[in-house]
Design a protein that fits this description.
heterodimer; A: five-stranded mixed sheet; B: alpha+beta; seven-stranded mixed sheet; six-stranded mixed sheet; 29 strands; about 30% helix
């Protein structure tokens, strides 16, 4: 039976009336016309469909719509602000951390979730967090470099904005809306 | 983009100011009517509508030119719709009344970066900022015929012609300025989209002002001189991808992101095995799902059944309700018996190269070694599965496809729908990986068929399982290689037979007096194309560096064995047997960066080397690996890859390709193998098909060997082709055991150690 599910999509309230058992990926891509999340494997192996639900990376192809009720969903379309790229997006573009671009939204969002919980990750921590996101073009080395660069850029923002915050690492850095 | 207030193309004749330039008049572009896709073009690509083209052709400078010639046509293996590929102008660029420059090309962007590198070549030659260049790619209505994007050929064949056309356009702009300024042409120069008088740069005229409302058409008859490389300021400089912004924001559209009003998504009934035929089907349960449309076409074993719905997931769920029975496949092949089959099926061979005599080579040989090598089927596994949207309106059809060959797709759709080709327009949004797999466009024909049967626009997007099932795999292949060394450790005999790998890169790069290279199954290994006898149990085809990556595996492993026989380290042995100075330079460049001294293998250090000449791009790679003897796992720690691709257009783009080749190549080295049995493809998703991931990543060092004296060669594929041999040789150096089969899985490594 159809139900109306309400949630925040990139900061805006949305309501969708459909079967709550449908996977979020298809609702985003067809009902809500947000095509940034991609179908890659349909079984949660590749990460191309990754979106954030309340700040956690989720495989939207495996995530029933019912579970987003009253939650906040961030897709790649919601990451830039007023035409200005998020530092992660900027770093991916600057360092060529993409080729075909199909896995890129999932990569960036998974990296974003990593930075939310660990603002200054090591290369090994980045690789570990992104291990289940597949890039067939083989941009892994550049993706790691891009996440490092974004992490540095975000720290600088915190230093600028935190008015005397001494330990940038402990600051709540990358909350999206703080940027 | 502009559109009239009514949203309809404005095709009224407009006055055409004529120029008194002695330029050959060309016929006007025909006023075909095309559906508008302006600012809301669902492909998200900067495209130029036909209507806009007409408008700008009324106020623009257009240069028609011819790309390629005989070689391109031969390699492409396909001709233009009229059969006349090389003779007519088949490409053009335009300088618009706004001063922007547009390149129209049938090539597609699938990650390899030509959207940037072609724009760089154009910007350089016509002297505009890179940001003033628009690329219109893979649109059959706007772009001239192109056989397809494959074989690392875009920069090599399209690039030079594009440069010449740009030089011609620049020349015309200077002539226009000379007339306007009353200056002699040779006193004028160009920079940043303007012509200026050399002594007084302030006295400049922007290109836009020169063109105004005029329409000038030029056919490139003579090849004008292009800029000396020393004067380049755009080309040759590391340049970020111009498509990066669209791709990091989610704005970049792929075929699956295209939406048409009334569009249905298809879920197609597939047989459980290749060769299995449909016996009976019951769609009644699926038909009960609200909104579902079941389409059935053809009877018996030709039966084609699909479930359509406005939501793709609902269509897929309804397809699961379809009950079907199939006759089993007659195929009895599997991973265990495939190599014996490939040898038995080998009928005739192509002679790839033959010189001297094998008898003489054998007579001169103090030592000979003969070995067989094997490579399993490998999938392209593109990030984006094959996808297409087809919309039919009367006798017109529009297609958006994930394809490497939009013009071939147009032909296939026209044939499927019984329409003339000019009534079919194929557009290519961004393509999410190709690697040769998207030369085949089965999904496009399926979408056309379903659009016709349903009367609605249809999207076909293969699931990952369908992608594995329908892919045209890299062919499984086997090789027999016999080589001989004379008393001075020179290779004097090379007797090489490949069975169904394809022939590319099977000619050794070494200086060998007596050699013969045979390819059974033809240029693409039998089954891929060209009408060769079908020996494989499913479709096979080009896979990034087709033929080459397994030929190089067999060749370069065997060279390592001969080095060991010679008692020499693998690097010294190679250098001693190479005559090609350019190759030696590349090998030394890799060795310099690698910085480790090679020793006679097995040294226990895990160092390997492999080299190749891939269609005249030279590659030398060196690696260090670590092997866990108990588990059989191989970890590649470091890869240095030196490449001479002639003049390098975008060094950063070239590095990306080399790094991507190395990373991707680890998959077919160590893990990727299609499992199959009796026509069934047992590999259905990434849980049973391991592709490289972050944890596999070695330190990759790409070394671009500067060679501006050589015209630009290809870069998308060469480096992937050495990876199999590179890693096999390094494994041997590490543990003293040689693996003869790709992929070198932990089980095979353990087995090889056990049999040592």
């Amino acid at each position: 039976m159809d139900e109306t599910i309400r949630f925040k999509l990139n900061g805006k309230e949305v309501a969708v009336t459909t079967s709550p058992e449908r996977m979020l990926l298809w609702v985003l891509r067809t009902d809500l016309e947000h095509t940034g999340a991609k179908y890659g494997c349909g079984e949660g192996y590749c990460g191309a469909c990754t979106v954030l639900v309340d700040g956690r990376p989720e495989r939207s192809c495996q995530f029933p719509l019912a579970k987003v009720e009253s939650k906040s969903v961030l897709t790649i379309e919601g990451l830039s602000r007023g035409g200005k790229l998020h530092p992660l997006q900027q770093a991916f573009a600057d360092l060529g951390a993409l080729q075909c671009g199909y896995c890129t939204p999932g990569m960036i969002l998974t990296a974003y979730a990593l930075l939310l919980r660990k603002p200054d990750p090591t290369e090994a921590e980045i690789a570990d967090a992104l291990e289940d996101n597949l890039c067939r073009c083989g941009s892994y080395n550049r993706i790691i470099a891009a996440v490092r660069q974004a992490s540095r850029a975000l720290k600088m923002k915190v230093v600028k904005g935190a008015k005397g915050a001494k330990d940038v690492r402990s600051a709540k850095v990358v909350d999206h809306d703080a940027l | 983009m502009t559109r009239s207030k009514t949203g309809k193309p404005d095709l009224r004749p407009r006055p055409e100011p004529r120029l008194n330039l002695k330029l050959k008049a060309r016929p006007r572009i025909e006023d075909d009517e095309y559906t508008m896709f302006g600012p809301d073009d669902p492909s998200g690509r900067t495209t130029l509508e036909r209507r806009d083209f007409l408008k700008l052709a009324g106020g623009g400078l257009v240069v028609f030119f011819t790309v390629g010639g005989g070689l391109e046509a031969q390699i492409g293996g396909a001709r233009g719709p009229d059969g006349g590929y090389p003779d007519d102008p088949n490409a053009y660029l335009k300088v618009g009344a706004d001063g922007r420059v547009t390149c129209f090309t049938g090539k597609v962007e699938m990650g390899q970066g030509i959207i940037t590198s072609l724009a760089m070549m154009l910007a350089e030659e016509i002297d505009v900022p890179l940001a003033s260049v628009d690329m219109v790619m893979g649109d059959t209505a706007l772009c001239p015929y192109d056989a397809g994007t494959f074989g690392s050929r875009t920069t090599k064949y399209f690039g030079p012609s594009l440069r010449q056309a740009a030089a011609e356009a620049r020349g015309v702009l200077i002539r226009l300025a000379a007339a306007k300024l009353g200056s002699p042409e040779d006193a004028l120069a160009t920079k940043d989209g303007a012509v200026y008088a050399a002594p007084t740069p302030s006295k400049k005229i922007p290109y836009a002002d020169l063109i105004g409302d005029r329409r000038i058409e030029v056919r490139l008859e003579k090849r004008p001189a292009v800029k000396a490389i020393a004067k380049h300021s755009v080309s040759g400089r590391p340049t970020p991808r111009t498509d990066a912004r669209a791709k990091v924001t989610g704005e970049a559209k792929f075929a699956g992101d295209i939406r048409c009003p009334g569009m249905l998504y298809a879920a197609i009934l597939r047989p459980p095995a290749h060769g299995a035929t449909l016996k009976s089907v019951d769609t009644s349960a699926a038909e009960k799902v609200a909104g579902v449309k079941v389409v059935r076409d053809g009877a018996g074993d030709a039966g084609f059944v699909a479930v359509l719905h406005e939501k793709p997931d609902v269509a897929a769920a309804a397809l699961a309700l379809v009950k079907a029975e199939f006759e089993p496949s007659p195929s009895k092949l599997d991973n265990g018996n495939i190599f014996a089959h490939l040898k038995e099926a080998a009928a005739s061979s192509d002679v790839v190269v033959e010189s001297g005599s094998l008898e003489e080579g054998a007579r001169l040989s103090a030592k000979t070694v003969e070995r067989s090598y094997f490579a399993h089927y490998v999938a392209h596994a593109p990030s984006e599965p094959h996808t297409a949207v087809v919309r039919i309106d009367g006798n017109q059809a529009e297609v958006w496809a994930s394809t490497q060959s939009p013009f071939r797709a147009r032909q296939a759709v026209a044939q499927e729908l019984g329409l003339p080709q000019e009534n079919v327009r194929v557009r290519t949004p961004f393509v999410g990986c190709g690697f040769g797999g998207k030369n085949q466009g089965g999904q496009i024909v399926e979408a056309a068929r379903l659009a016709k049967l349903s009367g609605r626009p249809v999207q076909v997007a293969w699931t990952r399982a369908e992608e594995f099932f329908n892919d045209s795999f890299r062919p499984a292949a086997t090789y027999d290689v016999r080589a001989g060394l004379d008393a001075a450790n020179k290779i004097v005999l090379w007797d090489y037979k490949n069975y169904h790998a394809g022939s590319r890169s099977s000619q050794p790069v070494y200086d060998i007096p007596h050699k013969r290279v045979l390819a059974y199954g033809g240029g693409f290994g039998g089954g891929g194309g060209g009408g060769s006898v079908r020996v494989h149990p499913f479709a096979t085809g080009a896979w990034r560096g087709p033929g080459s990556n397994t030929n190089i595996f067999a060749t370069e492993c065997h060279i390592d064995i001969m080095a060991q026989e010679a008692g020499l380290d693998p690097l010294a042995f190679r250098l001693a047997n190479l005559a090609d100075a350019r190759m030696k330079t590349v090998v030394r460049a890799a060795a310099d960066r690698f910085g480790r001294t090679f020793a006679k293998a097995p040294s226990g250090r895990g160092c390997g080397v492999a080299i190749t000449d891939y269609l005249n791009s030279y590659v030398a790679a060196m690696a260090e690996v670590e092997v866990d003897r108990a588990k059989g796992t191989v970890r590649v720690l470091r890869v240095v890859c030196a490449q001479d691709m002639g003049e390098c257009i975008n060094p950063d783009g070239a590095r990306m390709q080399i790094e991507g080749c190395v990373t991707m190549g680890l998959g077919y080295c160590l893990a990727e193998e299609i499992r199959f049995k009796d026509g069934r493809v047992l590999t259905e998703n990434y849980d049973s098909y391991d592709v490289p991931r972050f944890s596999w990543l070695p330190k990759i060092e790409a070394v671009i060997v500067d060679n501006p004296g050589l015209a630009p060669q290809g870069c998308g594929e060469p480096a992937v082709t050495v990876m199999g041999a590179l890693v096999a040789n390094a494994i041997h150096d590490a543990i003293g055991v040689r693996l003869f089969t790709l992929p070198m899985t932990p089980a095979r490594v353990r087995e090889a150690l056990a049999n040592k």
